[in-house]
Amino acid sequence: MNNKEIAAFRRSIRPDHARLKIFDFLAVYVTKDSGEIYHAEGHPFAMVDREQQELYLGNFKKLLAGRLDVKLFPLAFRKEAGEEHAQQVLYQGLTANHAAEWQEAMLRMVAKMLQHGPFAEDKVITFIRGQYTQPVRKRDEEAEPGEGLEAYVLPFILCTINQTELPPKILVFDYVAKEFKYQVSVDPVVKLTAPETGFLFPCWTDGAADVNHVLYVAGKANEPDPVFMEEVLNAERRATAREEREVFGEIVREVVGEQLDAATIAQVYEAINQFIEERKEEDEPPLMDHRDVERVLVRSGVEGASPEKVEQAFRQVTDQVNYELKADNVIPSFMSKSIKIETKVATISISPQDLKYVRQVQMQGKRYLLIELEEDAVIEGFTLKSEPLL
After folding, report:
1. Are 159 and 109 in contact (CB under 8 A)?
2. Separation of alpha carbons 19 and 136, rounded Å
């Protein structure tokens, strides 16, 4: 799955959307004290109240917000045998002919979650089963406008895990009795606006369901839960975007050392962005091997970036010479102020494409951060007065 496919599916998650049909619904309440299922409630989704439908669908839509390799991780199932392997359980639920069979499979997934708990708070685990119609345009240059369209029907299971919390104690005014009253509720509130984690099964690509992969959603950016990925979903762990960026940084440091000027860093980012732009029409995200990294460094004017040295750096950092990095992951967001320059005095946010206007200079034994400006700087409404260099 790619970001575009996920975004299109996410936009369809709303009541009465023509491309989305939801058949079955199951909500399970799990207590932290016993670590067991306290209550499970399943219905055809059409029998759920309209207001509740909107709440649950908003929860699932919120779950799928984020970027691949940051919060969303397509994971390959490990090739293991066993009746309780997540791939087998989920596939049985996906293809079940009766709602009772589907619910039984989902409760087995809950049992796997509890087995590798415990939960710190009471949780609500929610499942839906349905199908999504994905429109796909044929690549036929001779097709007339409006022709050459296909629609693929894709079955799916979505799961979210949500935290619960007790409502706050409040003071209310009783208009009839004309008195203030202290009010407290013991019914826990399900935080449907902030799903902690979850998954989508199966993944799909170009209209084909891929039952060998599951889309796992992490609770926090770049912080996937290895236990959930490996033990609950029985899937292989995947590197995050932050981890890949750190690997790329280690490789570059192995080649050029610890110090680089801002202009060279900017040229490296621009070369990688150009590498991505040249391949943006491809179906798969562009990958960079040691040869691509060597070409990027040479194009950026990095001294000493020989093929042998870059290959050795790959082997040193990743333990394999054929390791490939996702180009999108190794640079910050190119158009936004995604780079932070941190000093003891201030933290400055800047975009990679503007990094070329930054210099660190040394005068009279002191270091200064020099930023080239096209206009006067304004602080608290005051235009800064230009001063000569020391």
Report:
1. yes
2. 13
Tokens representing residue 77 in the block: 């199932």
Domain boundary among 173, 204, 237: 237
Q: What is the pTM of this model?
A: 0.84
Q: How far is CA 182 from CA 178, 179, 186, in A?
A: 13, 10, 13
Pick from 237, 270, 299: which residue ends a domain? 237
Pairing of strands 37-44, 20-30: antiparallel
Which residues are CB-neighbours of 335 under 8 A, at least 6 positions away?
351, 353
219 and 196 Cβ atoms separated by less than 8 Å: yes
Q: What is the structure's pLDDT at 178?
A: 86
How high is the pLDDT of residue 355? 87
Per-residue model confidence as pLDDT tens digits over 36-58: 899 999 999 999 999 999 999 99
Is 39 inside any structural domain? Answer: yes
Residue pair 63/158 in contact (Cβ under 8 Å)? The answer is: yes
Co-location of 151 and 186 in the same domain: yes
pLDDT of residue 334: 81
Say whether both 247 and 231 belong to one domain.
no
Between CA 191 and CA 171 the distance in angstroms is 22
Question: CA 137 → CA 19, 149, 203, 205, distances in Å?
Answer: 16, 5, 20, 14
Q: Residues near 123 by Cβ (< 8 Å), separated by ≥ 6?
A: 29, 30, 32, 161, 162, 163, 164, 196
User: How large is the average pLDDT for residues 157-176?
Assistant: 88
pLDDT digits (tens, 9 = 90+) for 302-354: 887 888 999 999 999 988 888 999 999 988 888 888 888 888 888 999 988 88
Task: Note if the bond before 167 is cis, omega within 30 degrees.
Answer: no
CA distance 102 to 119: 24
Dihedral (Cα; 41, 44, 50, 51), 10-degree rounding: 20
Angstrom distance (rounded) from CA 6 to CA 16: 19
Domain total for the chain? 3
